[in-house]
Amino acid sequence: MNLRRDVFQAIADPTRRTILLLVASQAMTAGAIASNFDTARPTVSKHLQILTECELLEQEQNGREIFYHINAKKMKEVADFIEPFRMMWDERFNKLETIMKKYKTTK
Amino acid sequence: MERKTKLNAEEGKQEIVITREFDLPLELLFKAYEEPEIVEQWMGTKVLKLENKKHGGWQFETADATGKPVFQANGTIHEFVHNQKIIRTFEMENAPFGVQLEFLEFEKLTDDTSKLTMQIVYRSVALRDQMLKLPFAQGINMAHNRLQEIVSKLK
Question: How many CB atoms lie within 10 A of CB B73?
Fold first, then answer.
């Protein structure tokens, strides 16, 4: 498994980026995080699982509750990579290709 | 999925090279850079000015939902040769990155495929590295803005 790539897939999702941002300010339970979104609770759980698996989030047991907090070291590592820059151009060029293929067929 | 867009940023150099092969004839690829309405679609920005000629200028602007500009960039076209190359400068407004020089080369591979090579030269290695990290910072910023929108609706 290509871990590095998984991290970037993780942060490519806007909901997951928002989760990272929420948790960046304070450790939160899954319930508290979910209350910030309109999406169903299991969907948020799935996002939390992905973020935990690629080590951007860490879990901490506190009594009966599990708190999520950000793994600052991993976040720093990700920020140093240039992969998002490549992804940005890749997305733009994919769009260009799709648009021009349609353009060709309508001509 | 295969990685179609390749990025080469050699350590200690003040340039990057982006290459991409397209399932498009060369003429269509070039058209996507020439026609303002098409540029707007794939770049996701408004084209205020695009003078495709030697000594021409260009200007892009992206606004948020309220119409406030969030991204503005401009530059000068240095060379514009149909289906071959574009040489231009690029500068983001209200940003500390300065101007960069871009060499775009368009090549025909087959009748239905083409290749773009984009060489971007920055003023310094430090500036290049900063620019490369920008999309990550912006991603976090965008998430932040959306969060603020959500929070302000709750109030």
Answer: 17
